[in-house]
Amino acid sequence: MTLIEVFMQELDRLRRDELGSRTDSSAEAIRDYQASVHETQTSISVLQQTSGLLSMEHYQDQVYEADQLEAEVLKVEAELRQVVSEVTQLAQDLGVPPELAAAVLQLYSDHEFLALTEQMSEVAADLATASRQYGAAHPKVRQPKLAYEALQRDALSRVDAMPGLDQERFGRLGLFPDGNNGELLTELVQKESRRAGLDARLTRMREMLVSRRQELLSLAPTAAELQDMQRNFDVAEAIFASAIARAEASRTDLYASYPLAQVLEDPSLPETSSAPMTKLSIAAGIAATLALIIGLGMAWFRHLLLDPALRRYHHVDESG
Questions:
Q1: Contact 32, 264 (CB under 8 A)
Q2: How many Cβ atoms sit within 10 Å of the Cβ of residue 76?
Q3: Are 91 and 101 in contact, with CB atoms under 8 Å apart?
Q4: pLDDT digits (tens, 9 = 90+) for 6-25
Q5: How far is CA 201 from the centre of its chain?
Q6: Is the pTM of this model over 0.70?
């Protein structure tokens, strides 16, 4: 096995170890992120189930609906004021309370009552003619008067048969039929019915609005908490997705820590040996020999120069 093969095998082993270490670390981090995402999602689900609120957008939709309901309440209030004004004016013109208008209109549609009132009108005309010609005790005056009173009693008995009416109230109001009042009574009944409907509708809408406002007020903290939890969930989910992407990228990137090594050029044997160098060795030997000879020569020459001087010095010293 060549050196390059051993080197490559060692690199492969190091890469596998590094990849395993990164995979284990990424798997542990992914499990932690997944647990965080699951925990946040569970908390959101529990809060949604207990509050009935799905999200901040759901809360804002409910606020918008409450605002729309309030605007509708204001609109119905204005419409009710207009109808009340019309009912009051009609009741004053007719002299009939709105609550009795329907009963009076029903009475005016009773054929027997209408026949009696028609006969009363004829007898009243005869009585008026006779009263202008004769005295009150004259038989021609008393007879139509008695007939008129009998017809009036029969007509009032029909009044008692109508719910909400009695002879006393009917007689006090003087509500005997008038051809011009039928349409006005019908209009009064219609407007009173509309007024009652608007009033009932307005009452329900006001109760609904108060209930909705109270509910929104109690849901406001929950909506804020749900928004925060949703934001945390989005962040945790993004981190989880990023961790998975990084794990996948590191799993495929084998050369992150240990780059790919390549042989740029195959090795080749030299044409001549690099050592020993014969010529250089001979030259070095010659140079060393010359240096040794020169050194020995200088030492011998120094001896020749110094010995006579030393002998003269010793001789002078002995003679002195």
A1: no
A2: 16
A3: yes
A4: 777 777 777 777 666 666 66
A5: 31
A6: no
